[in-house]
Amino acid sequence: MCIEFSGIVLKGLQDRFKYCRIGAFALVFLICLDVAIVNHHNTALAEENSVLVKGEGFIITSEHVRQVKNLLPPGVEITQEELLRLTLEQRLFGMEAVRLGLDRDEQTAARLQIAHDKILAEAFWRHHVVPETDISDDVLLSYYEANQDKFTVPAQVHLLWVASSDLQTLEAINKGLKAGVEFNKLVRDAPVHKIPLVKGPPYNTGWKRLDKMPKQLREAVSAVRKGSATDPVSFGGLYYLFYVADRKDEEVLRFPDVKKRIKEYMVGQKRREIRENILKELKLRYQVADKLSNAETTK
Which helix (H) or strand (E) segment is 40 a member of? Predict the structure, then answer.
């Protein structure tokens, strides 16, 4: 009965949609297999690599369905039944495309080869490269101890500053600061005409590394405690007062805090070396001669 019904459906589809042969064949298969899929999928999908769909010359297993699910965009919600239907649809459309010779199209053939190579290359990488790049904690710790400078955070200061052509104005601000008056209030109360170039003072530099500062400024703020200011510093005809709103002393990051970063770096470096060596070996094995190879030999 299913076959007779399928023939009627197929004839109707072909008569009505003469240019949609792939869709017509696929829909017929879906109709014939619909009952079997619905009744079978709830238990079969839970089994390890079980056969979910059988057709003439092909099967679809739970592993096929899992791989299709892995290709879905992040966040896409789909039921197991919908996923199985999607897997079957892609298989049927693909088989019909081959029957029609579409796989021999130059562009399609190239894309098929690229997808084929990519999947096998990933399998090769997982089996022959990843196992070779496991790095022990002792090796990671040795790298950490030998490269302390890479895990040292330099001293930093958070600066506020004002500028004036009048030295006494800045000295008065500094004096008030030492008496416990808030820096921002002292700046706001200072005579405006004596603080040129200031709009909404004080200026905020944010956090700055001491080792990146100009020498004169670094020497001026290095020994200044949090909540204090430098003596007025002369630059280019103006006097500057730098207030240390906060500071962080030099710090060496702890090994547990950087262990993951070290491992990622060392694993990446080791894999690059392995990759280059394997590529050289394979180019010789398969006698590769291309523009890239010629360019490398002429360097």
Answer: helix 21-44
